[in-house]
Structures are given as C-alpha cells and as structure tokens.
Design goal:
- Homodimer.
- This protein is α/β, with parallel strands linked by helices.
- It has a domain of about 260 residues: 3-Layer(aba) Sandwich (Aspartate Aminotransferase, domain 2), CATH 3.40.640.10.
- It is about 35% helix and about 15% strand.
- The strands form three sheets. The chain has a seven-stranded mixed beta sheet, sandwiched between helices.
- Helix 9 links the parallel strand 7 and strand 8.
- Helix 3 runs antiparallel to helix 11.
- The radius of gyration is 22 Å and the shape is globular.
- The N terminus and C terminus are likely disordered.
- It binds pyridoxal-5'-phosphate.
- The site of pyridoxal-5'-phosphate has 15 residues, from helix 5.
- Pyridoxal-5'-phosphate binds next to helix 5.
Length: about 450
Amino acid sequence: MSGVGDTNGTPHTAASAAELRDRFEAALMPNYGTPGIVLARGQGTTVWDVEGTRYLDLIAGIAVSALGHGHPALVKAVADQTATLAHTSNLFIHEREVELAERLIGLLRGAATGQHSEQGSGQNSAADDIRVFFANSGTEANEAALKLVKAVAADRGLRAGDGTGYIVSTSNAFHGRTAGALALTGKAAIREKFGPFGMDVRFVPYGDADALHDAVDSSCVAVIVEPTQGEAGVVPPPEDYLARIRALCDATGAAFILDEIQSGIGRTGHWFAHQEAGVTPDVLTLAKALGGGLPIGVCVGFGRFATAFAKGDHGSTFGGNPVACAAALAVLDTIEADSLLANAADLGALLAAEITAIGHPLVAKVRGSGLWLGIQLSAPVAATLQERAAAHGFLINAVAPDTIRIAPPLTISRSEVFEFTGALPAILAEATPSASETGGTA
Ligand SMILES: *Cc1c(COP(=O)(O)O)cnc(C)c1O
C-alpha cells in the first residue's frame, strides 16, 4: 500500500491505480474487462484519478452525470433527504416520489416547470392521462414497459411468444441487460448466448420505416425504438421516422415504446427527444441522466397505458427511493434554473462544428444532437483514440471500433469545449494508423 498517510482530498484512497486494478481483477467478475483508469474524485466537468491526474470528463458516466460532479444542488438534495428519510419501500407514500412524478408529467405535457400547475388537475380525459412507475435503472424501466404492453395486449388476446403475438425491435438497438430488455436488444453478440427468452422478438434495420411497415401487423404487441441509437454509436434516424412509427402503431394497434434512457433529460437540448419530433409514444422509458448519478429509472404510460397495471401487477423495493427522487428533482430544477437545455443545444452545436472544422481525415462524420455526438472515424481506431485522448487529459468513449461517443455534463462551458477541440488535432494525429504504428510518446 502506498500513500497511507495521505488523507487530503481523497481520504478513502490509499492504494495505487496498479494495485486497485489487480484487486479489481481478483474480486470482481470479468464481465467489464479491467478499465485502465481508476477515478478518485470529480468537480464540475473535471475528474481526477488516484494518482492526481486531471481529466476533462466528456462522457459523464455514459450520459449520466448531467450536472457534472459534486454539483452543490445534488449534494444538498441527497444529503438532506438521506438525513430526513432515506428509504420507505412501496408500503408507504413519501412526498418526493409524488413531486417527481408530477414534475415529469408536467415536462411531458410541455408545461412550464416549477409551477406544479398539474397537481390534482383531474380535468384530463383518459387519452391525456400520463402516469409513471419508478424503477432503479434503465433495464428495469424497460422491463416495466414490457410488462405494461403485455398487460394491454393480453386484453386483445395477444401474447408475444405463444404464436399469437410478437414484438418488433431494431438491429443494433440497446435496451438493457436483464432478460426481457436483453431479448429486445439488437446486438446478437451480447444477446444470443443468453437466449432463448420465451418471447417472439423480430428485428428490423434501424431507421428504415418501410421495413418496419412490412414487419408490423395487427398481431404486433409493441414496437420499441430509441429516438437515436446510443450504444450503436449515436445514430439518428431519418427525420420522419418516429412520426411514421406513431402512424403505424395507430393503424395496427401495436404499442409504441420509446426508449429515451440515454436521449432524455436534456441530452439533445430538449427535455425529451420525442418533443423535438412532435411525436408522443404510448410508453416512454427514462433513466441515465435523471438522477444525476443516483440510480433511478422511470416507465411512463400515456393514455390507456397510464393505468394498464392493476394493483399487484408490478413493483420494486427500491424504486422511487426518496434519495433518488430528491436527486432527480435537483437535476430537473438545476437544468431549468441554469438554462442547461440551451447550453446543451448551443455548446453541442459548437462542439460538432469545431470537431468538423478540424478537417482531419480520420473524422469521417460528426452526428448527433445537443451534447450527444458520435464521431464516425474513417478507420477502426476508436480504442486508440480513446487511449490517446486520456493521455492528453480527456475522457471520451470508444463506443464502437470506428466510433467515438461524446456526452459531457450538460454544464460544460465554452472554454472547456475549446480546451478539447484545441487538443483534438494532436490526439487525432497520434491515433492515425501510420502514426500509432510508429509509436507515440507514451
Ligand atoms: C443505458 C441504456 C439502457 C440500460 O440502462 P441500465 O441503467 O444500464 O440498465 C437501456 N436503453 C438505453 C437506450 C440505454 O442507453
């Protein structure tokens, strides 16, 4: 052990990165491989590793840390709620879950936030009804969505797996790792070893509304898509895609599940990506950024899906936990108070423009919206680029062999954007195949 006496700043960390990697490998299952960097702390858009090396965090824990690290509003909300009431289970109501549900419903209606004008309105028709179920993660939100659409389909005499019904998902989609969500996940490499799942799930190419049209008939229980595929490399669909899915579901009776687990809560410069498309799904799932780092997932039901669960149909011990709900309320308050939707839109556009303007041959294309970008590379060197970026003090994500994903905190500043784009030419040069083969400086 090194640095045992050092309690400045990192009181819990007395071990070196190399030692922690060894212990990680011995004590944790090998499903993640062994990450190269051992983080110790963060503040704003900056994180430090256990050796004190500083990094600009441009991935935010996979589009999660929307407020960056150590944001005072999040720290206070979590500390106060933990001191007041950390857990209730679903045997009891607590105020934060009610507040958060109302708040999300208000945002989904496009209402001004912070006014709680939705409270007890009781004037909405059944078709306007919106209700939420709280889970703890993205995959759990999608499990709830699956059960919800199955509950509605059962009323139509359809079951997705006994020959009467089926579900349609898209190639390369990512919907989670638990059994139901994994069955919907369109990457064979992560799915196939763990099947069969007892569900009839059919995959069509993402972004191809005609293929979807051919695949969906009146026996289809549900269509599930991401508004832009995140884990596939931040891949947006054609502009009318969501509208065409909406029309197809209306025509066939299939439920439209929209997975906004990565795209939601400001990432694209809108509260939700579907609001930009002007399309409302039947079921919506959220997670990642909502808790600002605290685990929370949400399944939202619209219209008949708002009330499709009967008492006893679903549940979670931790779901809607007061601390997670308090964190989420702090995230929503801060996004609004600090105009972070505008920041995401403006600085995302700046970031994309600056990366494109470098004109480096390794950058084939920059795609995405808001602070959610996929850099398509002209060679499969994303892992090298990620490693060279880290050596220059920037955390980015090699989401695919030829794609870099960037999803910084929504709080990122203009000068931090320029810090990265200023360093990027040198990073790109070090990652170009010829340069990296002749050896870099590390
Ligand atoms: C991350 C993600 C999930 C899974 O969320 P977990 O919290 O990791 O279970 C599901 N869908 C999408 C689109 C995601 O980005």
